[in-house]
């Protein structure tokens, strides 16, 4: 069993992805992010997406939290995990620099494909509140070629 599957198996013990404790402090933001990505993957599967890859970092640069397929569309997903609205929502967190990294990763993924495909960029926001199931906000087509959000 690989490390991701092992972590996922341990986390399944928590009831419906409830966040067990948010009092771990800022030193564990990586833990919270990983936990949010696992919950987002579960959410996307329930929405009908097929997860093709998680945490893909191509050699030429860029980063993709998830690559999914929804029907005939390839979806590059950025996951933002929050414990409150203090830092703004997911839209604000995916700034121009982050979008450029996602686009670079997506370009590398698309370069590996034998033929062109339809694709889009989505953002999934995972909001945890102490002792409650996470809330999900799926922003389909969150940004495009012109670096603008599409509502």
From TrEMBL:
<protein>
    <recommendedName>
        <fullName>UPF0102 protein CXU09_05400</fullName>
    </recommendedName>
</protein>
<dbReference type="GO" id="GO:0003676">
    <property type="term" value="F:nucleic acid binding"/>
</dbReference>
<dbReference type="InterPro" id="IPR003509">
    <property type="entry name" value="UPF0102_YraN-like"/>
</dbReference>
<dbReference type="Pfam" id="PF02021">
    <property type="entry name" value="UPF0102"/>
</dbReference>
<dbReference type="InterPro" id="IPR011856">
    <property type="entry name" value="tRNA_endonuc-like_dom_sf"/>
</dbReference>
<comment type="similarity">
    <text>Belongs to the UPF0102 family.</text>
</comment>
<dbReference type="InterPro" id="IPR011335">
    <property type="entry name" value="Restrct_endonuc-II-like"/>
</dbReference>
């Amino acid at each position: 069993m690989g490390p991701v599957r092992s972590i996922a198996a341990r986390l399944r013990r928590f009831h419906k992805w409830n966040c067990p404790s948010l009092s771990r402090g800022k030193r564990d933001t990586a833990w919270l992010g990983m936990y949010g990505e696992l919950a987002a993957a579960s959410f996307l599967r329930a929405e009908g997406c097929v997860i093709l890859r998680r945490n893909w970092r191509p050699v030429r640069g860029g980063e993709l939290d998830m690559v999914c397929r929804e029907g005939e569309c390839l979806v590059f997903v950025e996951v933002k995990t929050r414990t409150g609205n203090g830092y703004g929502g997911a839209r604000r967190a995916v700034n121009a620099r982050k979008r450029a990294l996602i686009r670079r990763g997506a370009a590398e993924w698309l370069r590996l494909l034998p033929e062109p495909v339809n694709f889009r960029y989505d953002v999934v926001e995972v909001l945890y509140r102490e002792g409650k199931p996470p809330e999900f906000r799926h922003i389909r087509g969150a940004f495009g070629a012109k670096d603008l959000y599409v509502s």
